[in-house]
Amino acid sequence: MIKGETVLSRDKQGSDECTLCRVVDSGRAKDRPFYDTHLFSTKSFVVIPAVGPVNVGHVMVVSREHVPNFACLSRHQREEYEDLLRSICEDPSHGLSDVLEAEHGGAEGERGGACITHVHVNLIPNSGSFYDMLQGRLRQQSVDHSLTTLEPSAAPYVLLRNSHDVRLHSAKNAPSQLIRRILFEKLGRDDWDWAAFPQLDVVTSTIRLWRHSVDT
Asked: How do residues 1-19 score in pLDDT, each as one tens digit?
């Protein structure tokens, strides 16, 4: 970790202390560190760079409301998320091609591998082929590609989706950052822990990529 930098806490829970609640709070803009830059926003969501990114362009979609997982979002919020996803992925200047959507869907008292129990879906570029990377490792649950059948009772879960397929796995007692552990294993890398390897230079490149798309 870079000296003097404080990366997102993975320990604080509850809406009064939640790190991601603070990140999406527009009133805290002047105190926000650069790695929490708001790249894009809608009524219900904010897009921020991912700390410890897999590659340039790796971002997270974070809910403004303190909700534990995507399955607990309302129908209107889910529709808004899908519109957001299409909007940013169809713009080639954001570098979001062949995206893997990845979420640890935590629940009360059971994080399911999440560091923070607050909706944050990772959008990882050039990684769509890894949607089935947990096949045989965790029990699979049924879900449709549109996620309309994703119910809160599925939590804790791991959700992996690309443009044409989806996998939902039960994640009770899953180790922290399981998605990252397995993905980095597939990539032949060992820097899976975002807190230990924040990759702030790559974060900076992602912010520049988005700012360039706005400037042009």
From this structure: 333 334 444 444 444 579 9
